[in-house]
Amino acid sequence: MSFDHRKYRPAPVIALADRQWPNRVLEQAPTWCAVDLRDGNQALVEPMTVAQKLQMWALMTHVGFKHIEVGFPAASQPDFDFVRELIERNLIPEDVTIQVLVQAREDLIIRTFEALKGAKRAIVHVYNSVNPTQRNYVFNSGKEGVKAIAVQGARWVRDHAARNPGTEWSFQYSPESFSSTEVEFAVEVCDAVIDEWRPAARPMILNLPATVEVSTPNVFADQVEWFCRHLKARSEVSISIHTHNDRGCGVAAAELAVLAGADRIEGTLLGNGERTGNMDIVTMAMNLYSQGIDPELDLSDMDAIVATVGACTQIALHPRHPYAGELVYTAFSGSHQDAIRKSLAAEKPDAYWDVAYLPIDPADLGRSYEAVIRINSQSGKGGVTYLLERDLGLQLPRWLQIDFSRRVQAQAEASSSEISPEQIRALFEQHYLEPLHGYRVGRFQLGHDSQESLRLELQTPNGALQLEGEGEGAITALVNGWERETGMHIDVLDYSEHALSAGTESRAVAYVLLSVDGARMCGVAIGRDVVNASLQAVINGAAQINIEAQAQRQRA
């Protein structure tokens, strides 16, 4: 029998009968530290390029992080180069402190301080594993030997900081695998590290990682509270938490750890990280927000966050992901739709949010109510999708299935009759495939240097328009050119394409989901090849907003 629970043993618990954390409530946001550029990046199949790291950096500073871990410069030349680029190009805002990770080895610490030369302020984060498994099997050392590694690492960090007085240094130490370590020993090691750092009078952070989540969140909270109670110099340090999600409880463990005395939380946007991921800062911050607590992060443009993280990590977001998923504010049940509709009708402008099935107002995150209350029939949507694939060879992505089924349902209600397959095909062609109101892609030219460059002639109702743009691909270049011309902001939220099963072999169809100035638009096009279809699909989606804006100006 291979599936045998008897090969495992439960994690030990702490005798803490007078625990205080269950009686506390969350009242303010912790200090956040985003570790997407290091801990998140090391977990990717394809680590981020410098361009992608800069894109993530821009997102994190825009969202409002004040502590950002930017890499492990001593272990990776790309990380070293990225840290140098941030410093030399003066890309670090005045109120942001960068953090770098390093093992407790002098050669790596020396290299780390080389990477940080010229930084106005920085956190040097040194760590070593202290749990019994690694003591026994990795280091082949007892407690004293492992503690000596930590103390020596702290001493090296202190001494090299003193040799580089031009930077405001902060010191951070992690007893790696804290969650699997005897809390008495974790305190002993951290007390020894503090003794090395206290004379330097630098800000100190002790980071307690659940490197592997091994117990329920309440046990982790007990560990944190016990640690905070027994640390000799608790008032002199900031207690930081770094949880992982092996048991699916990373956010819960971090929240309870704050109740247990933690001041600071490390995590990643949307939870990317080793194995099952890091603690998801978006979820924890939005949990605070839903309770009337300022998360001190700006998550109002959730579509842009999802698009940027997805583009940089190449990881698609689950449609049921808390707060950020495509379907989390959507009700398919008729009774849910009715309750939401009636609650929204009863909402008063100055009252607290109180809507059935919606813990927060989707509009706060840039989502529309159209996505919340929509007509849906699983069988109807499935039937429509089947007919389009059978008759036109189209393989609609889920978001387009939902958008089009809403149009089909509206027409069915208006006509009070059954809609035939011929009507369904005609409706799809009318709304998606025909160049929208005369917006048609004409001749275009692509250049290939460090980036794609695009020159495109666009036929519009007012005549030909020349668009020029640059980007990492043809679509990005077109979006760049369209934004220059119209001033609109576009995020590409999803894209797919395939060859058509009907017609000539060279024809292709492209589907694109756009966020245009915060409004979601679907674009579809069939072209002689993938590039042609992709460009026309973007225009078909983006032009809808342009047409609406023109109509509003005319009405005004």
Automatic annotation (TrEMBL):
Keyword Coiled coil included in the entry's annotation: no
InterPro entries linked: 2-isopropylmalate_synth_dimer, AIPM/Hcit_synth_CS, Aldolase_TIM, IPM_Synthase, LeuA-like_post-cat, LeuA_allosteric_dom_sf, LeuA_N_DRE-TIM, PYR_CT
Recorded GO MF terms: 2-isopropylmalate synthase activity; acetyl-CoA C-acetyltransferase activity; magnesium ion binding
Chief localization: cytoplasm
CDD domains per the UniProt record, alphabetical: DRE_TIM_LeuA (cd07942)
SMART domains: LeuA_dimer (SM00917)
The protein's role, per its UniProt record: Catalyzes the condensation of the acetyl group of acetyl-CoA with 3-methyl-2-oxobutanoate (2-ketoisovalerate) to form 3-carboxy-3-hydroxy-4-methylpentanoate (2-isopropylmalate).
Designated name of the protein: 2-isopropylmalate synthase
Provenance organism: Aeromonas molluscorum 848
Gene: leuA
